[in-house]
Amino acid sequence: MTPITGKTAILLMLADPVAHIRGTALINETLAGLGLDAVILPLHVRPADLGTVLQSVRRMQNVAGLGITIPHKVAAWSLVDALTPVAQRMGATNFVRRNADGTLTGTNTDGAGFVAGLRTNGFAPAGKRALLVGTGGVGRAIAFALAEAGVESLALMNRDRGKAEALAQDLRALVPGCAVSVPAPGDTAAALAGADLLVNGTSLGMATEDPLPLDLSGLTASCTVAEVVVQPPMTRLLTQAAARGCAVIPGAEMLKPQPKLVAEFFGLVPG
Predict the structure, then answer these.
(1) Helices of type H across the chain
(2) 73, 128, 163, 260: which one is catalytic?
(3) What's the pLDDT tens digit per position in 15-48?
(4) 7 catalytic, yes or no?
(5) From CA 15, how far away is CA 45, in angstroms rounded?
């Protein structure tokens, strides 16, 4: 590992909790592989302290930027000074660049990383039917990315049905070619039975005692099941889906394409 000195560009990954964080290791490997004098470190920040931490970062001259993960992606979106177009329409940010004048610019690479991970694992979204569970920060990013990648239809589920309806309305306005629906609770099995892709966009699965994000009674072997949870690599959802004959894509696959995008966004390598 390259020694960390006063010249090293520091990146911080803000999360609550941080014990599950694995993306920093992947990003550090990529930064080292690109020959960059930069490092990213996890930082445990409670939601109530997020604004204070962002204000402090504005004054930290050797901090190039931040990674933003659970549960801060939506909150950070409203606390930065500027947003890239992709972050603006997704309503969430997962990376924030500190500019030379101390202002903060947010972007979102979750959706692009997720779709790239699908394609790397042999799943082409165009023309497919997808069911997404979870419409928070990462779920919103994935929803837009799937719609823009050409899925034929996208069904949205969330514990708060109103949030799913709000995201559906945004998607219909910005990506009118995608048929977006919000199944009623009683229609979940039918929506799942007709899906080519099931995505867990919630944090359920991080703990062994977590329930499944949805009832799998309608799941068929023809459906590919993808996670956003990185640790453990095989969540309860993926384990049960694999047992039913489904192709499964672990959460780490959405992270692998992102480090180079991040380095470019922070100005560490030419875009």
Answers:
(1) 23-33, 50-57, 73-77, 85-90, 110-120, 137-148, 161-174, 188-193, 236-243, 258-265
(2) 73
(3) 999 987 877 888 898 889 889 999 999 999 999 9
(4) no
(5) 6
